[in-house]
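> call design_seq(struct)
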C-alpha cells in the first residue's frame, strides 16, 4: 500500500506532468488520503520556492520526475518542521530506494543534507527571488502587481495559506442559534458571520460535523454564499443555475425560496453530485446535462426570471483550495476563459425574461474575467442594466481574506 509520503509524491509528479492530482487521491486508501492531500497541497503551495531551491541544490535538472517530486515534498516539510529534520531525511531516502531502481537514494540524501547545512544561505536566496518568495508563477505575480499595486502581496500571501472552513446552515431544517448550541456542545468553536454562515476555528472532516448527514448544514465558502443572496429569488420563480456542479449554490437558492429551478452542468460525471447534495438537504431541482453556451440542446423555450451564470474561470481567487491551479495555468489561459465566458453570457441572455435578473459570477481576481467582461457585455446588449451589489457599487470584487475566498459578482437586469 502507498504511504502518505509516496502518495503525496505521486500527486506532485502528476502536476509536474500537467495533470490534476485528483486521480492520484482517488486511487489511494481512504485512511491515507487526508494526510497525503494535505502534504501534497502544502508542497504545491510552496512549489515555486521548492523548485527554486532545487535549482540551487542540483548541478543539473533531474530527468526523473518522481524523484524531483519527492525532493519538493521533503524540502517543504524541512522548512516547516526543522525539528523533525532527521526523520524527514530518513523517510525521503527510504522512499527514494524504491524509485528508479534505487539509483537516486544517495542523491536524495546528499541534496537534503546539503540544504540543512546551508539552509540560511539557500533560504535567503529564495527570499530574494520574487517567484520563490511569493510562491506564484511570474506572470501571475505581474498581473496582481499591475491590477492591485497596494494589495498584491496580501493576495499572494492568502493564496499560500490554508483555506478557511465555512458552513452554511440549512434554514429549512434548523436555525443558527440552535446549530451554534449544537456545535458548542460538541466542543467545536465557530464564529457567526451572518444569519446562516459560520466560520469554524479549525477545519475538520465533514463526518465530524453534527447534523451534516441529516442535511442541517453544508460546507460553502462565505464568499460563495453571496451568490444566492444577490440573485434576489422569490417563491414561484423559474430559475436557472447555468454551471451548477457540485450544487452548493443550487442548494442555497432552494433553501431561500420555493423555486422551479433547473441546475445545468456540462460534465456528465459531475452532474450526479448535484443530485446527491440536494437529496441530503431535502431539496429538489431539475438537473440537466448540457452546455450553457448551447441552449438549443437543453432549453424548453420558457424564459427564466433569474439566471445564475457561475462561469468557468481561472479560479485565481481559490488557489489556496486548489494549489495545483497556479502551476497548471498559463498566462494565455485567462484570455481563453474570457472568450468562453463571453460566449456563455451571450447565449444565456435571450433565455432571461424581460425584467429578470442575471448574476454573473467568477472565483477569479483578474479583471479580464470580471469587470472588463461585464463592461463589454453591457456594451453589446442595450437592454442590460447593471444593478447594485451593495451600496452604490454595481459590482463586487472579493479578494481572498481570512473569512472568504476571492469572488466577483455583477448583477444585470433585462430592461426589455
Amino acid at each position: 500500500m502507498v504511504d502518505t509520503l509516496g502518495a503525496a509524491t505521486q500527486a506532485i509528479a502528476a502536476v509536474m506532468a500537467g495533470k490534476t492530482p485528483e486521480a492520484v487521491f482517488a486511487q489511494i486508501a481512504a485512511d491515507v488520503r487526508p494526510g497525503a492531500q494535505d502534504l501534497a497541497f502544502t508542497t504545491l503551495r510552496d512549489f515555486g520556492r521548492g523548485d527554486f531551491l532545487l535549482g540551487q541544490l542540483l548541478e543539473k535538472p533531474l530527468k526523473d520526475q518522481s524523484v524531483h517530486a519527492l525532493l519538493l515534498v521533503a524540502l517543504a516539510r524541512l522548512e516547516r518542521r526543522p525539528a523533525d529534520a532527521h526523520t524527514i531525511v530518513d523517510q525521503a531516502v527510504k522512499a527514494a530506494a524504491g524509485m528508479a531502481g534505487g539509483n537516486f537514494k544517495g542523491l536524495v540524501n546528499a541534496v537534503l543534507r546539503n540544504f540543512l547545512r546551508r539552509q540560511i544561505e539557500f533560504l535567503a536566496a529564495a527570499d530574494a527571488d520574487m517567484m520563490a518568495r511569493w510562491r506564484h508563477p511570474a506572470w501571475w505575480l505581474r498581473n496582481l502587481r499591475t491590477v492591485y499595486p497596494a494589495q498584491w502581496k496580501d493576495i499572494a500571501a492568502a493564496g499560500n495559506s490554508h483555506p478557511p472552513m465555512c458552513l452554511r446552515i440549512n434554514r429549512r431544517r434548523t436555525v443558527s442559534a440552535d446549530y451554534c448550541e449544537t456545535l458548542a456542545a460538541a466542543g467545536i468553536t465557530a464564529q457567526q458571520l451572518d444569519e446562516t454562515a459560520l466560520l469554524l476555528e479549525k477545519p475538520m472532516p465533514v463526518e465530524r460535523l453534527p447534523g451534516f448527514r441529516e442535511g442541517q448544514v453544508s460546507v460553502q465558502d462565505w464568499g460563495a454564499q453571496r451568490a444566492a443572496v444577490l440573485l434576489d429569488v422569490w417563491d414561484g420563480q423559474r430559475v436557472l443555475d447555468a454551471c451548477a456542479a457540485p450544487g452548493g449554490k443550487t442548494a442555497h437558492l432552494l433553501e431561500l425560496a420555493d423555486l422551479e429551478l433547473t441546475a445545468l452542468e456540462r460534465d456528465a460525471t459531475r452532474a450526479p453530485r448535484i443530485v446527491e447534495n440536494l437529496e441530503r438537504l431535502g431539496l429538489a431541482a431539475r438537473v440537466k446535462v448540457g452546455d450553457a453556451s448551447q441552449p438549443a440542446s437543453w432549453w424548453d423555450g420558457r424564459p427564466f426570471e433569474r439566471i445564475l451564470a457561475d462561469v468557468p474561470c481561472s479560479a485565481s481567487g481559490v488557489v489556496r483550495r486548489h494549489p495545483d491551479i497556479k502551476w497548471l495555468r498559463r498566462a494565455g489561459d485567462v484570455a481563453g476563459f474570457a472568450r468562453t465566458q463571453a460566449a456563455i453570457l451571450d447565449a444565456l441572455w435571450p433565455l432571461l425574461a424581460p425584467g429578470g435578473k442575471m448574476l454573473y459570477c467568477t472565483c477569479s481576481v483578474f479583471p479580464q474575467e470580471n469587470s472588463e467582461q461585464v463592461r463589454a457585455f453591457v456594451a453589446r446588449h442595450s437592454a442590460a442594466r447593471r444593478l447594485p451589489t451593495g451600496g452604490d457599487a454595481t459590482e463586487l470584487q472579493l479578494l481572498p481574506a481570512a473569512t472568504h475566498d476571492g469572488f466577483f459578482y455583477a448583477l444585470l437586469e433585462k430592461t426589455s
